[in-house]
Fold this sequence. Notes:
Bound molecules: protoporphyrin IX containing FE
Low-confidence stretches: none
Helix content: 55-70%
Number of strands: 2
Number of helices: 4
Order of helices and strands: HHHEEH
Oligomer: single chain
Radius of gyration: 18 Å
Strand order of the largest sheet: 1-2
Amino acid sequence: MNNVQMYPLAMRVMHWLMAALILSLLFVGLSMVTSLGAWQYTLLNWHKTAGLIAALALIVRLGIRLMSTKPALPSSMPKLQYYAAKLTHWAFYLLLGCMPLTGYLMQNAAGRPVMLFGQALPQLISTDLAWYGLFRELHAWLSVLLMALIILHITAALYHGLIKRDGVLKSMLK
Ligand code: HEM
C-alpha cells in the first residue's frame, strides 16, 4: 500500500501513446487482411514498422514500470476483482510481447526480410512453410485475444470511472 494517487507522468504518456499505436495496428492489420486493394502493400509495410516500434515501446514501458511507484488499487476492491485486474495487466504485457514476436517470426519463416529504418534485422529462424502457417495463425488468434482483453479493460475502466467513482480511472487520466 502507498499514498500515490496518480500514475507517474511517464507511465501515463506511455499508456496513451501505446493505446493509440496498438489500436491502429489492430485496425490496419484487420483492414489489410480483408482487402485486395493496391494500398494493402503500403499498409503492410507501415504495420511491420509500427509493430516493431510497439515492441521497443513495450520494453521502455516495462523499464519505466519497474522503476516507478504506481497507485495501489482501492482497498475496498473485492479480492477476486483485485486478482482479475492484476491478471489482466500482466496478460496485456504478455500479449503485447507475443504479437510483434509472432509477426517477426512469421516474416522470417516466409523468407521476407524484416526492415527497421532501412536496416535488415536478423533472421531468427529459417524459411519454412509450416512454421509460416503456424506463426500466421498464432498472430491472428492472439490479435483476437488482445481485442477481447481491450474490451474487458475499457469496460472495467468505465465501471470504475462512472459507477464506482473510486479514482482508478482518474489515476491514468490528465
Ligand atoms: C503489437 C504489435 C502488432 C499487432 C497488434 C498486430 C496485429 C495484427 C492483426 C490484427 C493482423 C490481422 C490478423 C488476421 O486477422 O489475419 C495482423 C496481420 C499481420 N501482421 Fe501484425 N501486428 C503486430 C505486429 C506485427 C509485426 C512486428 C509484424 C512483422 C514484422 C507483423 C506482420 C504482420 C503480417 C505480415 C500480417 C498479415 C498476415 C496475413 O497475411 O494473414 N505484425 N497483425
